[in-house]
Write a structure and sequence with these properties.
By secondary structure, this protein is mostly beta strands. Helix content is 13%, strand content 37%.
Length: 278
């Protein structure tokens, strides 16, 4: 059955992924999200957005979390010489799990701290952003220049670094996402996964899904451009946000009221981020 769904998804992908001369900054419309109570300190929402081209109909699943109510930690796995983590191996204690950061080959990209130990040093990239947690659960969002001081302080328990930044530490969408010719493919549409910080300090997780044929739509990597995703996160009230690995890697698991809801990816990744109640 899954094979048939995947083949159908590939057929749709080939049918609609035609190169476009449309400008990268396209109009994106969205209705207000509907929110549902999940675990204490967590809500799940969903909203449909519409843009031009392949992103003409996209569903965005949202999770809002009070970071003080949860412990965030990383879970890494390699299997048979390749990435081996997916939401299928999430522990029963987790209420949220998603793939973390970007990766190169079989290794996560950029700065990675797990349980107080630095596993990988910071990566280089002007559009990267790091997120850290200390022992008390406090989250910090760091531009590349802020990372050395955080490393020197020695209080980071968990950290990840990803790119590109969608909303920088000044609350602005980087110009590289808004203008062509600055090193980012501003026309590319894909499935997206993003983390954001709301004005009240809560964490916002957003994962997109192609919704071109409604609830029967296969999970294929079509969706908004980066600037459209950044615009969406800003419209949700984020003061900063960063993109994680999207496309066929994007995956999310949410447990609420005894039910497990999953939005699966097509491939395994080396690293996941898990949230457990404190």
């Amino acid at each position: 059955m899954r094979r048939h769904v995947a083949l159908a998804g590939i057929a749709i992908l080939c049918a609609v992924s035609v190169p476009s001369a449309r400008p990268p900054w396209t109009a994106l419309t969205a209705e207000a999200a509907e929110w549902y109570s999940g675990a204490p300190g967590m809500e799940r929402g969903a909203v449909e957005i519409a843009a031009t081209g392949d992103g003409f109909r996209t569903r965005v699943v949202l999770v809002r979390m009070d970071p003080s109510r949860f412990r965030f930690r990383h879970d890494a796995r390699l299997r048979n010489g390749g990435p081996g983590w997916s939401i299928d191996r999430v522990p029963a204690s987790a209420v949220v799990a998603l793939n973390a950061g970007q990766f190169s080959g079989i290794a996560p990209w950029g700065w990675l701290v797990m349980d107080g130990e630095e596993v990988r040093p910071p990566g280089r990239g002007p559009l990267s952003m790091a997120i850290t947690w200390d022992a008390g659960g406090r989250m910090r969002w760091l531009a590349p220049d802020d990372i050395p001081a955080a490393r020197a302080a020695g209080d980071v328990v968990e950290a990840l670094q990803s790119y590109p930044t969608l909303i920088d530490t000044r609350g602005e969408i980087p110009i590289q996402l808004r203008e062509d010719g600055r090193g980012v493919d501003v026309h590319h549409r894909d499935g997206r996964l993003a983390l954001g910080e709301l004005d009240d300090g809560r964490l916002l997780i957003a994962i997109t899904r192609f919704y071109g044929i409604g609830p029967l739509s296969p999970s294929i990597p079509l969706g908004p451009t980066l600037v459209e995703m950044a615009t969406f996160m800003k419209a949700q009230g984020c003061r900063r946000a960063v993109s994680l690995d999207g496309g066929i890697s994007a995956q999310l698991m949410v447990r609420e009221e005894g039910q497990t809801r999953t939005w699966r990816g097509w491939r395994k990744v080396p690293l996941g981020l898990i949230a457990e109640p404190r």
